[in-house]
């Protein structure tokens, strides 16, 4: 028998993992060999954060170590697979992490222990892309502000004045910073609206960008030309504070900034100042430098800001897709097939 720990949470439910594993295992003819244990982590009701040296994790190390006793394989979205957890779980040989980046796993420790780690690239791409475009529409057309005012009994007819009227996506120039799975889908949606789409991504092939109907641009050129800038880059040392105050000041007056990627890409103090002094027209934010933001943050009181609590990837399809991708990887591991989405180096142990 193969003992499998399912460390789900209140988004990717343990039942979603179990159903996906059984479906893939049945097709591969190995479902009778599986035995499950389940753990439900407290996210999202309790925010994730750093745990024992890994990032964006949920739950306790002690609880996870207890649950992993004798376990051969584990699947999760947010459990903290730190060095201490991996070293305390000698039977473990596979970890499947149902998210686009396995930041809650110490990959070096896993490799040293001979544990394969797999992840789920693109699992939330469609949800996040749709949400990003929704944020753009909300910021450019007063959707949330008008709703809030009307719910309080205030009819904001002045939003129809020329001075206050929003812009259309058709004919607007939108700059995308980052052109991975999410950025590419956002680009397709914006092109359908009739936008001109500029892309800054040093890792994207120029010929592929032109083939998609978007235009490559340096960061400076993108900032100077865009009515709207939407962030879709991964957070790395290279991209940390990519939009700092100097970069934000290069945006044309009245420009709109959208961030549904990672808070660390953007200088939130500078953003707040430039929104307050009128240099920037609006911002739409789903991620923050500190999550949740402080209740006394000036950003929360600005009238030209659309805010949401890190919801871009929150669709039921994302949850099912994430569970299915790592379940398929688990079955590849069990049957000796090469992993499609291995995240760590292969290191054999004696």
Automatic annotation (TrEMBL):
The keyword Ribosomal protein does not apply. Pfam families: 2-Hacid_dh (PF00389), 2-Hacid_dh_C (PF02826). Keywords: NAD, Oxidoreductase. The keyword Oxidoreductase applies. This is 2-hydroxyacid dehydrogenase. CDD domains: 2-Hacid_dh_10. InterPro entries: D-2-hydroxyacid_DH, D-isomer_2_OHA_DH_cat_dom, D-isomer_DH_CS, D-isomer_DH_NAD-bd, NAD(P)-bd_dom_sf. Belongs to the D-isomer specific 2-hydroxyacid dehydrogenase family. Residues 133-312 form the D-isomer specific 2-hydroxyacid dehydrogenase NAD-binding domain. It comes from the Bacteria. It comes from Agromyces sp. G08B096. The lineage of its organism: Bacteria, Bacillati, Actinomycetota, Actinomycetes, Micrococcales. Residues 60-344 form the D-isomer specific 2-hydroxyacid dehydrogenase catalytic domain. GO terms for molecular function: NAD binding; oxidoreductase activity, acting on the CH-OH group of donors, NAD or NADP as acceptor.
